[in-house]
Amino acid sequence: MVAxxxxxxxNWKMNFDHMRAIAFVQKISWILKDAKFPVxxxxxxxxxxxxxxxxxxxxxxxDGLAFAFGGQDLSPHDEGAHTGDISALFLKKLGxxxxxxxxxxxxxxxxxxxxxxxxxVLAALKHGLVPVICVGETAEDLEKFGPSAVPxxxxxxxxxxxxADAEIVVAYEPVWAIGSxxxxxxxxxxxxxxALRGVIGREMSTDAAASTRVLYGGSVKSGNIASFVxxxxxxxxxxxxxxxxxxxxxxxxxxxxxxxx
Length: 261
Ligand code: 13P
Prior knowledge:
The protein is α/β, with parallel strands linked by helices.
């Protein structure tokens, strides 16, 4: 069995300018230091707005902090006449490890379909970024098709043409749970994450299915993180609102102290 290192990722969405970003990352690092929590058993990643990334990179590098970071989106193109878009090349050059692809807010606000998401996944991989591929059903989908059908279809499409040995992260984020304060139940999230692991097995390889981290996202807080990561197929969380509160996010990062195996 491959041991999957948990990943706690904070998606800041459109919050914090670069000055607040610096103060925030510094605060998290102090809280974890004071709590004597070594960031070795858990990967921690921040997803700041593009305009903050350089500042976050400089702080992490100069203070030798054990945090990774990434972009919230990328262009499917390398460069050229695409006003407002950001290339994987630029993100890689800034030291990004990850990039979020296909977040439901991009699917909604920017009409990103499965085809665009698949192209972005390939663009990320081409330049050595780990795509964090987001999938999830709306409340309407849930009622019509049940919890796994739409996420499974979305992930199958996103992994079309992907190399069998690519490193990816998958995040199951039910749209109805995002920002609503109503998280999925751990059992339901586990069922969908297991189905998504099945898709990884089919579209990539059994090795990839065993080693790929599948996260849950949607109203994750310090009070419920342990119940999710305790599930067999859930390897961490993609956190929105609670990732903007340093004390709360630091508690989520320290979940191993609260999980009784
Ligand atoms: P919340 O944690 O605010 O529900 O957001 C989840 C999310 O969309 C992370 O990408």
